[in-house]
Structure formats: structure tokens, C-alpha cells
């Protein structure tokens, strides 16, 4: 059982701050940075790292979405509709994570990192689209893609934006600024649902999540 105090809690807070800063610079969600740092550098067991990261994703989404909402950027109707399948995916992913060994989670996360790095190297494909929210209609393909995003989020502790943003932009034709803000809005709902299974298994520790969230909130100020 992990009960970080003193310097350990400080490291988790710094992880939250740095993940937010690097995520903003690289255009990534914080979870994709938090999880490997906690597992590899701080020695946190995989399931506990994923659970804490999901709480961090909720905090990141909440703090970032507040600004987006004031500017009227997220496609709320579209996001909530896509969340119907995203949440199902998050439930499935978080439950499945309980049956995965540490090594399997490490391998899956490594593959996700490689995919993300490859996307950054080749450059993100962007579909130019008219900025008219009324033209964005949810399709079955988008619902399926959102379910995949939810499964990735629930099992690996990330926001799932690596899938959600392309779904919104490439499949539904939402402009990129709408896609990223809507994805951020959705992440909090997805991660909150994903936390439930980890909490029920006793893998969601306040002693890990609290300092991490503190770091996220400090960075957001």
C-alpha cells in the first residue's frame, strides 16, 4: 500500500505541474505524461498510477473547460451525445484493467506512447471545416470511435484526446478549435466514470491523487 508523505507528496505535486506544462507545450493530455512518470520514475504500481491519473484528468478537464465554456467553444450537445458510448468504453476499460498485469499495462502504454509520438512526428492531419456548430452531426462511426477512446482512457488513465480530437475533426467535420475544446470537455466525464472501478478495487488512493490534483490546479492558475 502506498502512503506518500513529505517529499513523496511533493514529487506527485510536481508531476501534476510538469504534466500540465509539457502537455500544453506538446499538445497532449496530462495523463500520457503522468502515468509513465509515476510508474517508471516514482515507482508507483501501474493500477494505482492509472487511477490517480484519471483523477488528474478530471481536474485538468474541469479547469480547462471553464475557460473554453466562457468563450463558447465546446460543442456541448455533440460532446454529451458522444459521451454515451465513451462512458461505456470507459467502464469496460476500467473493469478490464483490473484483470491486466503490470507488465501488460506497461506494454499497452508503451504502444500508446509510440502511436502518439508517431502522430506528432508526421504532423496532425487537420480537416478544414466551416465553423457552424449546427452542421456537426453525430454519426455511428463517431460513436464507435468514441467508445474506443473511452476504453483507452479507462484502462490507461489518459484523457483519450488522441482519438477524440480526430473523431470530432476528421469524422464529424468540426473545426480544430471546436474539436480540442470539446474533447477537453468530454475528458472529465469519461475519466470520472473510469475512476469508479479503480475505487471499488481499492486502487484509487487519496494520498496519490490529492497532491497530483494540487499540481494540476497550481499549473492552471
UniProtKB/TrEMBL annotation:
Subcellular locations according to the entry: Membrane
Keyword Flavoprotein: no
Record membrane topology: Multi-pass membrane protein
Keyword Magnesium in record: no
Ranges that cross the membrane: 9-42, 75-97, 103-121, 141-165, 185-218
Keywords carried by this UniProt record: Membrane, Transmembrane, Transmembrane helix
UniProt xrefs under InterPro entries: TM_pro_TauE-like, TSUP/Inactive_protease-like
GO cellular component, as recorded: membrane
Protein name per Swiss-Prot or TrEMBL: Membrane transporter protein
